[in-house]
What we know:
This protein is mainly beta and 108 residues long. Helix content is 10%, strand content 58%. It has one helix and seven strands. The chain has one helix spanning 96-106, and strands spanning 2-8, 15-21, 31-38, 44-52, 60-63, 66-80, 83-95. The strands form two sheets. It has a five-stranded mixed β-sheet with strand order 4-3-7-6-5. The N and C termini lie far apart (40 Å). Mean pLDDT is 81; it is low at 3-16.
Amino acid sequence: MATVSWNLSPSPRLKLLQVSCRKRDKNRDNYDPYKVIKITPPPKNLGLRCFPSNLRCGDSVTIEGQTYTIWAVTRRYWLRKGKYEPSEKRLDVLSTARYVLNLYLENL
Length: 108
């Protein structure tokens, strides 16, 4: 489960988004919030989810009872006060059947 809170900065154009994962047990120290997008046309936003921080392409995740395979992991950064700070972590996912079909079609 992810908790979202908005912080308004002094500049009206700049909004900061803070997201934290709830720790239900002591083993969830390495969990990070990810924005999850199902990329089959039309793209569908599956919401903000907490997953382990060591996810890679090809890993399987289960969201609301359905199994998806990760197609891409994207981490975006922004330059602020001369330093790069993380701004977004995103997972592009496909249903597992579609992922296998795409791999088969690439090998033809």
